[in-house]
């Protein structure tokens, strides 16, 4: 389009007047009187097709003015904090009213300037609309300019602020919301009435446009509660920040503050006390503080949408009809989403806290069962079971499965782990993963079987202190097993009627996705604590054999015949392992019962018979001092025998007893094991006596000093019929007690022992802990019964030649191949019935004896 000179001059004159009026309008202090003069100039320029140019120039002028008058001043409020060091920022945060006052002042100033500029924009908008009204049939650019003018201005404001945003401003907002929410939490926590947030109507909506309504939401002044006052102040700050285009930054700031407060609350309630459930308290607190705050804030900002409002648009199917919250009623969809988000974070935080302390929680089980229940609910909600498995296995490897941990402690922790994880996961899927490293480690310990048997039979749960942990004692499991025998087995479908089968099918649930597909769900559910303990050992027979050895040791060392607790334990074991497996143990206990009765009969018969030689009573011992344990050797484990020459008086006593037994139990005869049993002695020193309970060999040693007060070690060993090294080891008991003194003998390898005369010499060797009327003798490393390992080695010696022959022919063989070959060729009298673990133990012994080599997973002859 070409313009003549007059038209061009008119356009230039109108543009100059528009620029002058724009400068006058924007530079004024609340003076909007240029409006009437502005309208004809805008109309003239629009008629010339310059609407777009005047809009862009006006917005550019607004931007320059906004930068100079508002933005620089706004950011200067926060410059001291942003330019300070990290230490100085901590001092800022410690100030009582920081950043409340600075943030409120800065937002008030910039919002006033923005409010005035919005009025200036409305002046131009009114001028453009007036031109459109005069030319309704003409399509011009003025309509497009008037429609985009206010959105472009809002975009300009947010763009200017975001491009000049200091890096530390989000940090300031975060701290502000943390501080305010903490104040709100303290107010609600210290108030008897937690409904304060809902006692005041914080909403006043205006029917004007969105940017105009933000200027005057709070027209009324009302007396409000403290909590409502806090929410109102926070709402003003949020509203002003959103008005300036900081919507995303603001939402992130107060969201992170709420999450931080929730996390702090979970840690405060949970802590290290595992005896109190906390999940319910956390959920109540979420509804009492964060949700009520968000409800009031969203309502204040006009973001709350009523579910009954049909114009609210599409709703989430997860939050279609929420339950009403205390003090809130039926929440909006936004509040429901917040509730789901906060609850999930609370579950996840408490779950991570409990998983991190799961080792300590299981140590304290069952006192810590409330914490286990909380963890179970959290995992059901989050489904993060794999996190528990990985974390707990790592804790076990570094804290439990180490050389410094005793086998008893590992077993106690394993039992508690089984019980705790069965609470969390009744299917036992995750127990399989967690328990496998423990079982593998325990299989490598030599005393595992002995410790398991001790836990099964000892009322103290295997603890040396004798104090039982209710969660560790496996004897309780035997009791429960006995009580549940009348219940139908889970897999026994033959005795289930159709109604019960239908009920079972209705309650069926698939295994978790983490379940091992190689192990069926029935097998998994059937495994109990005792079954898992037996799986460590390898077979039921090994456990029964170890129990038999320990029972024999216990019975042979009994000075009385009180075996009621042993009978009760045996009956419980019979229920779990079967009567045939425990038959030999039952015979052993019956031997004790018979021994008690036989002792009584023999003593009665001896008292009735007359003495053979008058006056011999003083030299001979009375039969009252002898109690014999008579055993059926075919049913007892191999007994450790040792030659021992006892004093003549004792030997006569044993002969009389054996003769009377033969008379009563013809044709049975006694074969005395003189090295076994216990002897109660009373030693007298110058009017004072001391009592000892010792082994027969110790009694034989000290009784020889009745004949003479001094003996050489060689002479005493010959007199007792025991090896010299054995004597030197046994006689140290009396020298340690101070009863005997040791001195150099006639030869270099001989020593002389002398009994002391006075009590003062004895007291020199007795510590404060030993000053008792009776001393109990214990010798570590010596046992009355051959251990299971010794029995196995003796039994497996028969197969040693077969193994050597196989390796000679085949060169090298794996463990499985040796095991299968022995089962195939060792039949009849030399039938092979050992387990794979027993064979591996025997082969390891041959490797230690340097008869075999173990290389690349195979055994071969030592070259």
TrEMBL record:
Gene Ontology molecular-function annotations: ubiquitin protein ligase binding
Domain of life of the organism encoding this protein: Eukaryota
Gene3D superfamilies for this protein: Cullin Repeats, Cullin, Chain C, Domain 2, Winged helix-like DNA-binding domain superfamily/Winged helix DNA-binding domain
Residues covered by the Cullin family profile domain: 532-735
GO cellular component terms attached to this protein's record: anaphase-promoting complex
Alphabetized UniProt keyword annotations: Cell cycle, Cell division, Mitosis, Ubl conjugation pathway
Gene Ontology biological process terms in this record: cell division; metaphase/anaphase transition of mitotic cell cycle; protein K11-linked ubiquitination; ubiquitin-dependent protein catabolic process
InterPro entries cross-referenced by the UniProt entry: ANAPC2, ANAPC2_C, Cullin-like_AB, Cullin_homology, Cullin_homology_sf, TPR_ANAPC2, WH-like_DNA-bd_sf, WH_DNA-bd_sf
Keyword Cell division: yes
UniProt family annotation: Belongs to the cullin family.
The name this protein goes by in its record: Anaphase-promoting complex subunit 2
Native species: Eleusine coracana subsp. coracana
């Amino acid at each position: 389009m070409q313009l003549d000179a007059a038209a061009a001059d008119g356009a230039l004159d109108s543009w100059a007047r528009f620029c002058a009026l724009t400068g006058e309008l924007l530079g004024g202090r609340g003076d909007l009187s240029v409006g009437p003069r502005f309208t004809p100039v805008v109309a003239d320029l629009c008629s010339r097709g310059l609407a777009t140019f005047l809009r862009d120039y006006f917005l550019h002028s607004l931007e320059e003015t906004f930068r100079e008058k508002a933005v620089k001043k706004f950011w200067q409020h926060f410059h001291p904090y942003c330019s300070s060091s990290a230490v100085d920022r901590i001092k800022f945060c410690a100030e009582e009213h920081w950043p409340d006052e600075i943030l409120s002042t800065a937002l008030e100033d910039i919002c006033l300037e923005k409010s005035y500029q919005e009025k200036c924009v409305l002046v131009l908008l009114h001028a453009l609309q007036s031109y459109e009204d005069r030319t309704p049939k003409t399509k011009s650019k003025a309509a497009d300019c008037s429609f985009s003018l206010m959105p472009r201005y809002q975009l300009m404001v947010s763009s200017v602020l975001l491009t000049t945003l200091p890096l530390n401003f989000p940090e300031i907002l975060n701290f502000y919301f943390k501080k305010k929410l903490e104040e709100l939490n303290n107010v609600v926590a210290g108030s008897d009435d937690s409904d304060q947030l809902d006692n005041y109507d914080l909403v006043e909506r205006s029917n004007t446009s969105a940017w105009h309504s933000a200027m005057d939401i709070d027209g009324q002044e009302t007396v409000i509660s403290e909590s409502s006052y806090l929410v109102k102040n926070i709402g003003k700050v949020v509203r002003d920040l959103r008005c300036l285009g900081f919507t995303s930054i603001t939402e992130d700031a107060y969201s992170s503050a709420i999450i931080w407060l929730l996390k702090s609350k979970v840690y405060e309630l949970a802590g290290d006390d595992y005896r109190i459930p906390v999940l319910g308290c956390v959920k109540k607190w979420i509804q009492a503080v964060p949700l009520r705050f968000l409800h009031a804030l969203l309502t204040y900002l006009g973001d709350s949408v009523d579910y009954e409002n049909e114009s609210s648009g599409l709703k989430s199917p997860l939050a279609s009809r929420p339950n009403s919250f205390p003090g809130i009623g039926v929440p909006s969809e936004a509040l429901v989403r917040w509730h789901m988000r906060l609850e999930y974070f609370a579950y996840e935080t408490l779950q991570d806290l409990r998983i991190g302390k799961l080792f300590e929680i299981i140590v304290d089980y069952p006192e810590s069962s409330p914490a286990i229940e909380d963890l179970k609910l959290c995992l059901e909600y989050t489904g993060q079971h794999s996190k528990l498995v990985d974390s707990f296995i790592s804790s076990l490897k570094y804290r439990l499965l180490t050389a410094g941990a005793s086998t008893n402690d590992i077993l106690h922790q394993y039992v508690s782990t089984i019980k705790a994880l069965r609470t969390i996961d009744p299917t036992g899927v995750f127990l399989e993963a967690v328990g496998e490293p423990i079982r593998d480690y325990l299989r490598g310990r030599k005393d595992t079987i002995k410790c398991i048997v001790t836990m099964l039979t000892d009322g103290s749960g295997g603890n040396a202190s004798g104090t039982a942990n209710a969660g560790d004692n496996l004897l309780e499991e035997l009791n429960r097993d006995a009580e549940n025998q009348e219940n139908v087995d889970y897999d026994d479908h033959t005795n289930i009627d159709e109604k019960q089968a239908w009920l079972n099918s209705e309650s069926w649930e698939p295994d978790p996705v983490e379940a091992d597909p190689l192990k069926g769900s029935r097998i998994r559910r059937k495994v109990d604590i005792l079954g898992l303990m037996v799986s460590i050992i390898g077979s039921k027979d090994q456990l029964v054999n170890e129990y038999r050895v320990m029972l024999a040791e216990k019975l042979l060392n009994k000075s009385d015949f009180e075996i009621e607790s042993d009978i009760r334990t045996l009956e419980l074991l019979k229920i779990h392992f079967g009567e045939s497996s425990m038959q030999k143990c039952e015979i052993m206990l019956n031997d004790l019962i018979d021994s008690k009765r036989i002792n009584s009969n023999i003593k009665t018969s001896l008292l009735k018979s007359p003495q053979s030689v008058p006056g011999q009573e003083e030299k001979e011992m009375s039969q009252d001092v002898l109690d014999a344990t008579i055993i059926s050797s075919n049913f007892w484990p191999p007994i450790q025998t040792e030659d021992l020459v006892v004093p003549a008086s004792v030997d006569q006593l044993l002969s009389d007893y054996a003769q009377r037994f033969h008379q009563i139990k013809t044709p049975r005869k006694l074969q005395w094991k003189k090295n076994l049993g216990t002897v109660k002695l009373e030693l007298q020193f110058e009017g004072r006596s001391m009592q000892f309970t010792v082994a027969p060999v110790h009694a034989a040693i000290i009784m020889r000093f009745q004949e003479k007060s001094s003996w050489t070690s060689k002479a005493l060993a010959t007199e007792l019929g025991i090896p010299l090294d054995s004597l030197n080891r046994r006689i140290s008991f009396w020298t340690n007690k101070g009863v005997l003194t040791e001195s150099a003998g006639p030869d270099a390898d001989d020593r002389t022992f002398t009994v002391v005369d006075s009590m003062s010499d004895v007291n020199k060797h007795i510590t404060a802990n030993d000053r008792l009327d009776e001393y109990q003798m214990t010798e570590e490393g010596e046992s009355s019964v051959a251990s299971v390992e010794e029995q196995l080695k003796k039994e497996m010696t028969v197969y040693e030649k077969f193994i050597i022959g196989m390796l000679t022919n085949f060169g090298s063989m794996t463990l499985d191949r040796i095991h299968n070959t022995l089962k195939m060729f060792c039949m009849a009298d030399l039938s092979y019935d050992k387990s794979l673990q027993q064979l591996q133990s025997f082969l390891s012994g041959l490797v230690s004896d340097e008869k075999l080599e173990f290389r690349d997973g195979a055994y071969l002859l030592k070259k």
